[in-house]
Amino acid sequence: MRLRGAVTLVTGGSSGIGAATARVLARAGARLLIAGRDPARLDAVARDTGALALKADLAEPQGPAELAEAALQMAATDADAPGIDILINNAGVGWCGPIGEMTGDKIAEILAVNLAAPIELTRRLLPRMTARGSGRIVFVSSIVGATSVRDEAVYSAAKAGLGNFAESLAHELEGSGVGVSVIVPGVINTPFFEHRGRPYGRKKPEPLPAEQAAEAIRSALEHDRQMVYVPRWMSFPARLHGAAPRTFAVLAHWFGDHGLAGPPGCPLARARPQSPQRKPSAGNRAPRDRCEGPVRLPSPAHEALRPPNWPVTGGRPVRGPSPTYSTSRKL
Ligand SMILES: NC(=O)c1ccc[n+]([C@@H]2O[C@H](COP(=O)([O-])OP(=O)(O)OC[C@H]3O[C@@H](n4cnc5c(N)ncnc54)[C@H](OP(=O)(O)O)[C@@H]3O)[C@@H](O)[C@H]2O)c1
Questions:
Q1: Which of 96, 144, 225, 320 has its CA 20 to 30 A from that of 152?
Q2: At what angle do helices 39-49 and 16-27 cross, to 10 degrees?
Q3: Catalytic (active site) residue 229
Q4: Does residue 284 sit within a domain?
Q5: Domain with 83 in it: what CATH number?
Q6: What is the pLDDT of residue 250?
């Protein structure tokens, strides 16, 4: 897909991967709308990129609908921008710890921001893309959505749901001219861990710069890629998990400490968490150390999907209006 002139909405554009993506896409000539909650950080990214900033709380029941409406209104005020060409569903929030320690509100927030909001934004922004026969929707998932990870059950479930939604959507959109991309980051050096309240405590894998994830998004857009892992080797544990879950569980048990439970009835599950032979336990290891782990991934059906070639969007280079925190400016 051609990025120059493409009207692009990036959620979670105020921080981390979203902010880096805004910078990368601005350099590629996209016309940006960025959304987030924090006005100061949103404004700083908008200033750097010439983006228009939209304040939106995607955990609120009306948050996604209001954001979609504001984005469409902005596009409608510009004769050269009849709609949103690219939607990047990047906003996300994590939580790490036993499920019993989560509040109902936190569960609702994680499901809303990571899963329900991308679905609702897609529902509202997709029709104009399909009507024009062009566009792309990107979902920023996570390696923990591709495998089962201890102490991140709700976040994992939300990201796994997002991946399945994206896969189903890609089937639905075959031949429509609108493509779907899923980005599967491993560990990225962003304030994500600080925001979730538990720092990243493992030595390996080392966190990658946010720019690497942003480049993966640019590449997925430019080359109509359906699934991109960051880093690329993350596809290996993902494929292994999909093809041979028990082997994956054994290897994960040996090489990691993410506490995979294994499938019901799996002898590995009995041998693991409370096993006396199991050295690392809650007693001698900080809980934060267990919160990140490997992957699962593309089912054969998913890999078989091929995004159709669809027309490029025309347009013009990014304009650099002095960005202010507003939803009423023209794009
Ligand atoms: N960092 C990693 O290692 C990693 C790994 C795998 C996947 N991911 C995924 O990558 C995506 C980006 O995360 P990141 O690493 O860049 O984390 P981050 O720096 O914490 O950024 C998260 C973004 O999401 C926005 N957000 C959070 N809650 C929101 C809400 N209720 N309403 C609207 N926006 C909200 C934040 O906006 P405000 O700050 O303005 O509230 C922020 O812009 C997420 O989907 C995350 O799950 C990250």
A1: 225
A2: 20
A3: no
A4: no
A5: 3.40.50.720
A6: 83
Return the residue whose CA atom lies nearest to atom 43 of ligand 1. Answer: 12
Which residue lies with its CA nearest to atom 42 of ligand 1? 12
Q: Does the C-beta of 187 come closer than 6 Å to ligand 1?
A: yes
User: What is residue 326's predicted lDDT score, i.e. its pLDDT?
Assistant: 35
**How high is the pLDDT of residue 249?**
84
Please identify, by atom number, the ligand 1 atom nearest to the C-alpha of residue 194. Answer: 20
Low-confidence residues in the chain, pLDDT < 70: 78-82, 255-331
What's the one-letter identity of residue 294? P
171: domain range?
7-244+292-304
Outline where the chain has alpha helix (H): 16-27, 39-49, 63-76, 104-111, 117-132, 153-172, 192-196, 210-222, 235-243, 245-255, 267-271, 300-304
Q: Is 192 in the pocket of ligand 1 (CB under 6 A)?
A: yes
Whether 211 maps to a domain, the answer reads yes
Stated pTM of the model:
0.83
- Does the beta carbon of 16 sit less than 6 angstroms from any atom of ligand 1? yes
Predicted local confidence at residue 256, as pLDDT:
62
Between CA 272 and CA 112, with CA 197 as vertex, the angle to 5 degrees is 90
Q: Is residue 322 part of a domain?
A: no
**Whole-angstrom distance, CA of residue 9 vs CA of residue 30:** 10
Per-residue pLDDT tens digits for 45-91: 999 999 999 999 999 999 999 999 999 998 877 656 568 999 999 99
Q: Is 87 in the pocket of ligand 1 (CB under 6 A)?
A: no
Q: Is residue 276 part of a domain?
A: no
- In total, how many domains does the chain have? 1
